[in-house]
Amino acid sequence: MKGVIKWLWIMTVLGIWVEVNGCLEQEKAALLQLKKNVGDQLPFIFRSVWLLDYLESWKEDKTSNCCDDWEGVTCGLNSRVVSLSLESPNLGHLSEMHFNASVLHPFEELRELNLTSMGIKSWDEDKGASKLSSKLKSLESLNLQYNNFDASSLSQLHGFLSLKYLFLDENNLEGLQLHDIEAISQNLEELGLRGTEITGFQNNNGSTKLSSSLKVLDLSQNMLDNNIISQLSGFQSLHTLNLRANQLRGVVPLKGSTNLSSSLKVLDLSYTTLDNNIISQLSGFQSLHTLYLRHSQLSGNVPINALHQLRNLEVLDLSENNINGVSNYNGTVTSSPII
Question: How far is 226 from 187, CA to CA, in rounded Å?
Answer without folding.
Answer: 27
